[in-house]
Amino acid sequence: MPSGGVQRVLGVGGGAAGCETLMSVLTQLRKQRPDIDWQGHLLTAANALLPEAGRLPRWLTRRALSQAGITIHVEQRGEALVEGGVTTQDGTRIEADIVLWATGAIGHSWLASTELPLDKHHFIQVENTLEVTGQPTIFAAGDCAALTPALPNAGVYAVRMGPHLADNLRRACHGEPLLPWQPPERVLALIGTGDGRAIASRGGFGVSGRWVWQWKKRIDARFIARFNPPFEG
Q1: In the chain, what are the domains?
Q2: CB neighbours of 2 closer than 8 A, spacing ≥ 6?
Q3: Looking at the chain, which terminus has fewer C-beta neighbours within 10 angstroms, N or C?
Q4: What angle do CA 52, 54, 165 make, to 5 degrees?
Q5: Which UniProt keywords apply (predicted)?
């Protein structure tokens, strides 16, 4: 890539993943190629960033994006990846050299060919016991499961469902009554801003700083370490 040029990096999706990924990627690109003018843009179909977060976390995230020189385009749904950019729901073409796609999840297409009850996003409808609605011998948990009321597709919910699912599977095998799963009312979200800082969000509470980034790294490292067996040399 020649020096002195302009490169547009476009993030599609205004959730936590979309914001964090775009800021982190831009930071690394600017560090590795300071001779290039890296311009950041973010598309979100909603009328605000992090629509499920409180006002303060949304403000902190918008401030971090602004400090990173990222232009935010609200109520612009990315519809398709095309040569040289992205088209939106109204046919507008937004040029980009790099596209980071981090929009909301939908269920796998093969689920539509089954007789499992699905919601409008093709996720499997389940009871609070994690049994599939109308099919009590089948269980579903994690991002593929849709409870009522609906939960965000966040890993923290999937992780917390796991032990309860295992318990109810054991109960089902022994003919014992199943227990309902109660999702937490508020969960902690930690969003890296790419500059050695992070934003902590829980309900309407929000705070940012370098210490939050160090906190996030410790939490992530501890979680990953649970799945890495000790090395035996």
Answers
A1: 6-104+187-225 (3.50.50.60), 109-173 (3.50.50.60)
A2: none
A3: C
A4: 50
A5: FAD, Flavoprotein, Oxidoreductase
- Using DSSP's 3-state secondary structure scheme, residue 183 falls into coil
Asked if residues 24 and 98 have their Cβ atoms less than 8 Å apart, the reply is no
CB of 37 closer than 8 Å to CB of 69: no
Count of helices and strands (H, E) across the chain? 4, 14
For the segment 113-130, the average pLDDT, to the nearest whole number, is: 93
CA-based radius of gyration for the chain? 21
Q: CA angle at residue 59 from 200 to 189, to 5 degrees?
A: 20
Q: How far apart are CA 166 and CA 57, in angstroms?
A: 34
Tell me the per-residue pLDDT of 26-48, one tens digit each, with 9 for 90 and over.
999 999 999 999 999 999 998 88
* Residues 199-218: tens digit of each pLDDT: 998 878 899 999 999 999 99
SS3 content of the chain, % helix, strand, coil (to 5): 30, 25, 40
At 202 the pLDDT is 85
Give the helix/strand (H/E) hosting 92: none
- Residue 232 has a pLDDT of 63
Q: Which two tokens stand for residue 150?
A: 């609906």
Contact 52, 152 (CB under 8 A): yes
Decide if 51 contacts 62 (C-beta within 8 A): no
- For residues 9 and 41, the answer to whether their CB atoms sit within 8 Å is yes
Contact 12, 100 (CB under 8 A): yes
